[in-house]
Design brief:
51% strand, mainly beta, 16-stranded antiparallel barrel
């Protein structure tokens, strides 16, 4: 009888221990489903004075991310005691317009250890230099209202990666490695108890093979290094970000995209204001002279964005104005260009999880023929994808886009 009693006590203790262990762990399924009708239209014209015809292109689509990116994810945390915790995060994009399922966790795939020292995070994640483009955008980098700075930067990364034959961190993906996200990353985040100060440093391994007796080995192509430091207190938030992405690193050619940005917001209650300044430099060094005789070429993209979110009952009015100016690295006369974008939108919350939305955006391009990423082939900086994620545009007979218009109307549900 004594032996049986001891066995029951031991079993009860084991059950309680298992229950306590489960109570210290969590697993969450989360996601967003977004569906809307979007329409895009561009007007292109020839810069040849002998041609006056215009080319108009338009497209209407069912888009999956007009207000928030459709996605599904799993995240979990285990309390290790002593203030330590281990956690994972797996997040996959969803193409609910076509029924596309989970094919990868390309949005985020990380494992981390956190504690009083901060957080050490390993895996694929947002880049440190991207955060300001998103956090200080009234449209949260979604739909036709997306921060123009963000889209230009993404398309620079895509067009230059394709031009140099470098598929960074394993290949181009949604958002373009390594502008929006980067793979093979080691990230450190400051702890949250520093009087409002926050920040991170990040380094992504290029993972290229080193070959002995080979001057250019290993290639640094695919490497990313960046950081962000900010301060948030009450209604105020301000942050500075910087990142460098390596596209080529040989004795014949080297190329880096260097991004510096400063963003801020202030919530007055009746209105929340946003602002961002950005400078992106595409720096190329070559053993063969460029057109101006120099061995170094540094194209520059200077961006400014200002916006507001205005609460209106159960809804939110959103607006932004942005401008990005291209300064050509060859210093050619009349070689620069610029693009301006005005966006307006409204989100009406039906509940805490479900909302209706509508957005419209207009873009104007000045001297677009001079932007090297406009004259390329795929996704281009000042072309239709500069504000709209779907079609490209024709450049036949010297045609180049000079204005565009787009809108989204849809519904979003979070879970």
């Amino acid at each position: 009888m004594k032996k049986k009693k001891k066995t029951l006590v031991a079993a009860a203790a084991a059950t309680l221990a298992a229950g306590a262990s489960l109570a210290q762990s969590s697993l969450t399924l989360f996601g967003v489903m977004d569906a809307g009708v979007s329409h895009y239209r561009t007007t292109s014209s020839s810069h040849n004075p002998l041609r006056s015809a215009e080319l108009r292109q338009s497209q209407t689509v069912l888009s999956p991310s007009g207000n928030a990116s459709s996605r599904i994810g799993f995240r979990g945390t285990e309390d290790l005691g002593g203030g330590l915790a281990a956690s994972f995060w797996l997040e996959a994009p969803l193409n609910n317009d076509t029924g596309g399922g989970i094919t990868n966790f390309g949005r985020r795939s990380t494992l981390s250890l956190s504690g009083p020292f901060g957080e050490l995070r390993l895996g694929r994640d947002y880049t440190a230099s991207f955060w300001n483009d998103a956090v200080f955008d009234p449209f949260s980098v979604n739909g036709v209202g997306t921060n123009l700075i963000a889209v230009v930067n993404s398309n620079i990364a895509a067009s230059r990666a394709l031009a140099t034959g470098s598929l960074l961190n394993g290949g181009l993906s949604a958002g373009t490695d390594s502008y929006l996200r980067t793979s093979n990353a080691v990230s450190y985040f400051l702890p949250p108890n520093l009087g409002g100060f926050y920040g991170q440093v990040q380094y992504a391994l290029h993972e290229n093979t080193k070959i002995s007796n080979t001057p250019d080995s290993p290639s640094k192509r695919g490497r990313y290094a960046g950081g962000r430091i900010g301060w948030a207190s009450g209604p105020a938030d301000v942050a500075l970000g910087y990142g460098e992405s390596t596209l080529a690193s040989t004795t014949v050619q080297s190329e880096k995209i260097k991004s510096l940005n400063l963003g801020a917001s202030y919530d007055f209650g009746v209105v929340k204001v946003f602002g961002e300044w950005s400078r992106v430099r595409d720096v190329r060094n070559s053993a063969a002279p460029f057109a101006n005789g120099s061995l170094r070429l540094a194209d520059r993209y200077d961006g400014l964005m200002a916006g507001v979110n205005v609460p209106l009952g159960a809804g939110m009015l959103r607006a932004s104005y942005a401008r990005v100016r291209f300064v050509n690295g060859l210093h050619l006369p009349d070689g620069n260009s610029s693009v301006n974008k005005l966006a307006l939108g409204y989100v009406h919350n039906l509940s805490k999880r479900t909302a209706l939305y509508a957005s419209v955006a207009r873009i104007h391009i000045a001297n677009g023929r001079n932007n090297p990423t406009v004259m390329g082939v795929t996704p281009l900086v000042l072309s239709l994808p500069a504000i709209f994620p779907q079609p490209g545009y024709a450049t036949t007979n010297g045609m180049q886009p000079h204005r565009a218009l787009g809108y989204d109307v849809g519904i979003r549900m979070a879970f």
